[in-house]
Structures are given as structure tokens and as C-alpha cells.
Design a protein that fits this description.
By secondary structure, the chain is of the alpha+beta class. It contains six helices and twelve strands. Helix content is 17%, strand content 32%. The strands form three sheets. Strands 1-5-3-2 form a four-stranded antiparallel β-sheet. Strands 4-12-6-10 form a four-stranded mixed β-sheet. A four-stranded antiparallel β-sheet has the order 7-11-9-8. Helix 2 packs across helix 4. The longest helix has 16 residues.
Length: 282
Amino acid sequence: MTGAATRPFLVSAFLFAAASSAQTLEFEVAAIKPAPGCALGPNGGGKFGLLSPGRVEVECTTMLSLMGGAYAVDEHLERQWIQVAGGPGWLRTETYSVIAKSEDGKVPVAVMLGPMMRALIEERLALRTHAETREGPVYELTVAKGGLKAKASVPGACVPGGPNRSPQDLRPNSDTYKNCGIRNLRTRSGMVLEATGVTMRELAKSLSLDHETVDRTGVEGRFDFVLRYSSEGVPAPGAESAVEPWPGIFTAIVEQTGLKLNRARGPLHFLIIDSIQRPAEN
């Protein structure tokens, strides 16, 4: 069996909690078409076009990348680290475009990219899978020797994720924006992770590293902090040479939050492809 892993789409975890896990929504209209030779996004991931409530356009993606995002949420619509393994080679090489619309035009983007896209893939590609747990490399999030530096959130200052949260609160610039969660921003010096009312478990799930991160801090409660870092101490693409890069995430997280990332072994969750077909003509 050939193995290959996909990393979840970098969509903040709090977005996935915006809808009830009881929803069983399907796209009203959806088209998956071959797009040979199209340009993939950064790191070979999907390249998106229009993303708005009720409509998703993926300009260029492989089916493996699309599956990685669709299965990157659990049954509670919370982000999870999932690795897709097996299946034919075309999953990783052939490129496609996807346009999908919901009936009412109000479904959050993350719900469409997650459970709704999963249902579409399973139908159009006749996908059959099973789950496996294997031991492998992970990172453990712990408290550094100097102690936690993150500031405890003010009770009631933001609304934790859940099915009762209003979709209008998903607009960061609106007056009603009070959601707890994480935003990832790219700057000339690197990445900025803005955390508002975040638990240690939520932070661990949100970190985009080469392996899954597991919370081993033993710290309860919600915290606010800003983490500024760059990949291996290198500026973001396109940054001016005079811009000094921020430290890598392993250094930055200790200095700025009092947390630490340790290499360890732990359970890894795999989605094994048993059978799959190329998407049928729409």
C-alpha cells in the first residue's frame, strides 16, 4: 500500500465550530472538472478562487489535497489532524477545479470545505475508506521552564465555539465579532498567530507543523496572546532583504508564550483509501 499524507487546510479551528454537528447539508449544485496544467497553491495545496457563504470555488487542486481538507474535521466539526494513505497515483498528480453552491447561500465556508465537500467526494468519486491508528512522530506542547507567559482571557470577552454562535460573528471587522479563536496572518517578517480566548488544546490543534501537536501542558482555561514567528527563521516569500525575520516557531513560542514544543511519539490517525474512481463527468 502506498502512503501519502495531507495536511489540513489552514482554516482557523473556530470557523469549523460555527455550525451544529447535527447538520446534514448537501450542495445544491457542484461541478468537478479536470484542469490539466493549472497552477497549484503554496506547498502543492489547493488554489482557491471565490470563497463566500454559500459558494466555494477551487481553481486548482489535486483530489488528495481536497480530501485532506474535507476530512480535517471530526464529528463535532472541530479541526483534526488526518493523514490520507493509499489510492492510485492520479490522486496526487492530476489537477481539477471545483465549483459548488449551497441552496440557501448562507452556509459558512468552513462547513462547505469540510463535511459538505466530504459528502460530495464520497458520492462523485465512489470513495470507500477505513480508519487506522498508527504510532509515529508528534510534537508535545508543554510549559517551558520559565513558566507560562500567555495572559488569561477576561471571562465573557469572547464567545467559545459551538452550535449556538451566530454566523454574523464570523466577520472579524464587524461590531459583533466576539468569537474566541485563532487567526493566522502573513507579514513581510513571517507569520502572526493571534489567539483570543483559546485553550491549550485548541492551540495545539491549530499549529501547522510537519507533525501533529498534542496538548501536554495540563493548563486549563482560556488565554490571549500573539505569536510572531517565521519558518526556520526565514522571511515570508516576497519579503524585502532588509526585513529582519522573526525567530522560528520553536524559539518564538518559548520566548513569547512560555510554551515549548517537544518531539515525541504518539498515535497518528490515518484515512486509508480502499477504493476510488475518477470524478464522473458533470
